[in-house]
Amino acid sequence: MLRLPSLVTCAGLVCGFVALLFAARHDFGRAALLVGVAALLDALDGLLARRGRGGCEFGTNLDSLADLVSFGVVPAFALYLRALYELGGLGVAACAGFVVCGALRLARFPLVRNERFFVGLPIPPAGVALAALCVSGPPPLVAALAAAGLGALMVSRLPFPTISGLAALGRERASRFAGRPD
After folding, report:
1. With bands split at pLDDT 50, 70 and 90, how would you rate the model's confidence at 182?
2. Which residue, 73, 79, 74, 95, is CA-closest to 133?
3. Which residue, 39, 79, 169, 176, shows the most beta carbons closer than 10 Å to its own?
4. First to last CA, the chain
5. How far apart are CA 87 and CA 80, in angstroms?
């Protein structure tokens, strides 16, 4: 049940949980750092799953749950404690909206999977961006707009290139430049 990619996913989830504890203590720098470490572990578990064929449906579901904590709940909670509490109900709505949009994005991911692009902004870069913003201590309205904007991008239908999609595009352009057919 727990293969190497899933163990790496669990390490990322632990980073998210510890980041939550740091955020609760208003140590937003360490919380953001751990969200960044969780993002690296998220990339590593995906790489291990694809290369070692260690991926499975269990691992995919575990990864989504870990992503929701590390890149949804933690950044939203930290931003609320850092700035959005000043807006009262609007601040709660901005944070809850970000978390819900992240959950919707994760639920939609397996239904619209594409090798070349993601449909909507993936939750890891959205969560890392929100955690980084939290470190800077933004004005509450800026924080609310950032949470709403990143949430909207996650549930949008805009294409965001995957790494393999960018590599394929580079190979295609190199072939065209060299005058070879694709």
Report:
1. low
2. 79
3. 79
4. 41
5. 9
Q: Please say whether the beta carbons of 64 and 10 come within 8 A.
A: no
- Report residue 97's pLDDT band, with 50, 70 and 90 as the boundaries: very high
Q: Each residue of 111-134: pLDDT tens digit?
A: 988 888 999 999 999 999 999 999
Q: 108: part of which helix (H) or strand (E)? A: helix 89-108
- Which CA distances in Å does 168 have to 6, 80, 116, 152? 28, 40, 8, 28
- How far apart are the C-alpha atoms of 48 and 101, rounded to whole Å? 27
Distances (CA, A) of 41 to 24, 38, 124, 166: 23, 5, 11, 21
Q: What percent of the chain has pLDDT over 70?
A: 96
H/E stretch holding 5: helix 4-24
Token readout for 174 is 């190199």
Number of Cβ within 10 Å of residue 181's Cβ equals 5
Please state, as a whole number, how many other Cβ atoms lie within 10 Å of the Cβ of residue 49: 21
Largest CA distance in the chain: 60
Element containing residue 126 per DSSP (H, E): helix 123-136
Please state, in angstroms and rounded to a whole number, the distance separating the CA atoms of residues 153 and 126: 9
